[in-house]
């Protein structure tokens, strides 16, 4: 039995869910981004308790197909932007359509209805947070970051970064405190800087 979980998009979330399940003594097969697999059905009480504990962590069961589709899109974007080592050379709308086996317009409409933002906006917010992370590490220069995140140029990256954060990447790099949004809050937080 699999249960899909909304907002479970980072390793921190996976660790929280593992901890909750262990504390509750609920046996499970695996916990991965966006889902928990159990070897048997949960009792009604276990399900209610688990829902309550997950809600305390900002996580929740997904009960409808539109939300499930939206969460799968989020996971693909997060995987691509934050964890992938391969550069997607095709247009992201084509990549997502192929991966999800749905028309991009349909995916985009569902995503916007569920999240109140477009897929493109969600991708940009994730890219900006990834740029912040890479600037914080200081291992890559802007040219390398631009290439890694599939920007057409350093100027494009810099313009988008400044439009979202109000700072150039260089100004951001020199801040004493670099503000970042945790992955599980991206898309739920209105400010990006």
Give a brief outline of the structure.
With about 190 residues, this protein is an alpha+beta fold. The protein contains nine helices and four strands.
Kindly describe this structure:
The structure is a single chain. This protein has two domains: 2-61, 2-Layer Sandwich (Alpha-Beta Plaits), CATH 3.30.70; 66-193, Arc Repressor Mutant, subunit A (Orthogonal Bundle). A four-stranded antiparallel sheet has the order 2-3-1-4, with helices on both faces. 57% of the residues lie in helices and 7% in strands. The model is unreliable at 189-193 (pLDDT under 50). It has helices spanning 11-24, 44-56, 65-83, 92-100, 104-115, 119-137, 142-148, 154-165, 169-173; strands spanning 2-6, 30-32, 35-37, 60-61. β2 and β3 form a beta hairpin. It is globular. It has 193 residues and is α+β, with helices and mostly antiparallel strands. The chain contains nine helices and four strands. α3 (65-83) packs across α5 and α3 (65-83) packs parallel to α6 (119-137).
